[in-house]
Amino acid sequence: VKSISYAGLNSCGNLWVCPVCCRNIQRHRTAELRQAFEWRGGSSNWGMLTLTIRHRRGMALKRLAAGLSLAWNSISRNRAGRSWLKRWSVKGSIRALEVKFGFQNGWHPHLHVLFDFGRELSSEEIELARNQFSEIWPKEIARETSTGKKTLADFYGPQVVPSEEHGVNLLIGSRSDYLSKLGLEIGLGDLKTRSKADTYSHWQLAQLALKGDASAKKAWCEFARVMPGRRHLTWSQGLRKSCGLLEDLLDEDLVESPPDEVRGRLIWNVPKEHWKQLTAPANVLLFEQAAREGE
To answer: What is the pTM for the complete model shown?
Structure first.
């Protein structure tokens, strides 16, 4: 037995604040990404832009996340953004929202955008594509919108606009690199509460809050208010269909049934009256060990 999963349980479907649902949703999303790589010529034909903003302590997460989304949405509507996508023959994209926190510099939401270029880019092309997008991205943060919505620069001024040197990074990597950046491969290291660079994931904040850290608790509560309901992964129109994938289900629908790769034989139907005893930490480990050994 390679892995153990549970089914038939009530679930919230909230990948931002529920570690159990997060794991189940990640399995589905990872399987979808792997199929996309296989159908679109392998991971070497893809590249990932990471888009950041300047930030400081005291900036509201809700405002930062909304402004980041607004800036990205304008990319496909303005001439410079459309020209970049056309110049590099982008076939589609998958966008992920990631949020980090630092006790010195506050919230740091940023985007990882995986592009299907349809071919491998040379090192010279990678540098050129990055430099071109580095000129576009800061302007989108500062751009006045025609819809009347306020941008991050409207709220926080030019201090939030990233520099051309540090606002954009283009990664051409392996499949595991992309899955990790998209938040779909989380190892035990991501749950450690110590951070060398004052940068913490929301799960690390939760652990610090449980240990009594008042600042971490305040930050976690803000995160838990703001993030539920926001999409973690967003596919560009038509890309899922071209990869042979079905409709994009909501997270809460995904947790109701495991993906094919985690379906397997039924080991045990647990009666309701035994569930609490089984889920005691020590008993869970023993049960899963016995299942793996085929007992």
So the answer is: 0.81
